[in-house]
Design brief:
The chain is built from 4 helices and 8 strands. The chain is α/β, with parallel strands linked by helices. A hairpin with a 2-residue loop joins β3 and β4. α1 runs parallel beside α2 and α2 runs antiparallel to α4. The termini are far apart.
Length: about 190
């Protein structure tokens, strides 16, 4: 179990670092998934109109699966508390759906080849017709059920994958009014 705590445009005190490592570490220990690596990024929103400016982002890697949580709260300690509870729920879901049901260990995940972008710098450079970020993605064949697990673990609104049975590209997306949609290649 490996945990790293960093601050984005802010210093992280020793007390805040140990608190984050303890809370997220306890969630990780409770599920006993190995290997599990966690990266915690803490930052504060600068806009005074934002009611919950403290942000705690947790990205975990369990084998080839990525579990991501982002929480906004009024102070950093509360954001860490809420994020650790959400991490525990996501890990429990991961363990029951993936580990205990013996799904394939080579399930597809999105692997970024770049580090976390600096969103403030990107917003300054942003133009209307400009690509601001690229990702290299390794698409591995999945079943529809495995893709549903991946979209839940990542917390994204959409997920692209290759269908294992038909060998066609598909996009699974979360619908605004609930449920999921599936775009299929003809």
């Amino acid at each position: 179990m490996e945990i790293s705590v960093t601050g984005r445009k802010m210093g992280v005190t020793d007390a805040l670092r140990s608190y984050a490592e303890e809370k997220i570490g306890n969630s990780m220990k409770a599920m006993d998934i190995d290997p599990l690596v966690a990266e915690i990024v803490l930052h504060k929103e600068k806009n005074p109109a934002i009611p919950r400016p403290a942000v705690c982002e947790v990205t975990m890697t369990a084998g080839s699966h990525i579990i991501r949580v982002e929480e906004h709260e009024e102070d950093m300690y509360a954001a860490i508390d809420v994020a650790s509870a959400k991490v525990l729920r996501q890990l429990r879901k991961f363990k029951t759906r993936v580990v205990e049901k013996n799904t394939r260990t080579d399930a597809a995940t999105i692997r970024t080849q770049c580090s976390e972008p600096d969103f403030d710098a990107l917003m300054e450079e942003l133009a209307d017709d400009e690509i601001v970020r690229e990702k290299d993605i390794d698409f591995k064949p999945l079943t529809e059920e495995e893709a549903l697990v991946e979209i839940d673990l990542l917390g994204h609104d959409f997920f692209g994958y290759i269908d294992r049975d038909t060998d066609t590209f598909r996009i699974l997306y979360r619908r605004a009014n609930g449920g999921y949609g599936l775009l299929k290649q003809k």
